[in-house]
Amino acid sequence: xxxxxxxxxxxxxxxxxxxxxxxxxxxxxxxxxxxxxxxxxxxxxxxxxxxxxxxxxxxxxxxxxxxxxxxxxxxxxxxxxxxxxxxxxxxxxxxxxxxxxxxxxxxxxxxxxxxxxxxxxxxxx
Length: 125
Description:
mainly beta; AOC barrel-like; single chain
């Protein structure tokens, strides 16, 4: 038996700037003397190729004075390439000595989109 599948590749690049419109943080209880972990809720406004707003939930750990690690999930609502809608993206990374090493991807709603292997480059650099 041979099974074949047609794959369509779409590439869109959007360059945007953003501002954190509001942010709240709270420290998560942990052992004394260990690096602190914070939970943050962030509202952002995007301008440029990606225009709209997002709400993010993030976990942030300050491991050293010049190093942190974070993971976050944003729900974006707005416009991309002339199309309105919303999507969720996950991102994170480490910042050491001022250098960001990010990762990120779009979380697809398989009820609305069929896209195996879709990848987004990290949205924040």
